[in-house]
Amino acid sequence: MIQHINKNSPLPIYYQIEAALKQQIESGLLQPGDLIPSEREFAEAHQISRMTVRQAISNLVNAGYLIRQKGRGTFVANKKIVMQLSGLTSFSEEMEHLGLEPASELLSYQVIAAEMTIANKLGIREGAKIYELKRLRIANEQPLALETVYIPEQLLPGLNQEVAIASLYAFAEASGLNLGRASQTFESRLATKEEAHHLGLSISSPVLSVEQLTFLATDQPFEYVISAYRGDRYTFTVEMERRR
Q: Which ranges carry the HTH gntR-type domain (predicted)?
């Protein structure tokens, strides 16, 4: 509970509550998973309106510091993972760089005929054989992203289910392929029923949808990936330089 609120301060009361809770979270006094007092408890303890408390809590939820769980209360959220978009790395490599333990759960593995949209993305003929892999990406035993990967079968003829659980980039490079670059498209949207189920979210929760097209060093398309990242766990940062 916040120790003191100055009702004579020029700072709005909701802002004081917000700043105090943020400071407690950032200092470690409040840990991820901790339950914070209810709006009613805050309001009664400081003799303020619940609407004022609700505004402060809502701001912190929107900023990713807190998370509401229906029927349970409001909890301190897990710290966001900051992804620096400055190089082509695999999920496993990125998590290890951040000091997290990566893992994957293979939800489905099949070889299918490429429909027109995906064939065009991969620069192959419609109906050509491609791998379709659905994987749940996990860090420190927490589900973070659900992805569907499409790769031309001719590029990685040895790609089996055991390999699909591990790093595809490591396997591709061990197979003699040289990865070159990737282009990504980002979109904020609501989680689908499937995404919510696997990521532990409600259907109305926000996710960051990312489409990635990865190329070999020869500029031949290598993979097309559609991913849904938990919006409450990820922050993407991009470094840019002004063109001269």
A: 11-79
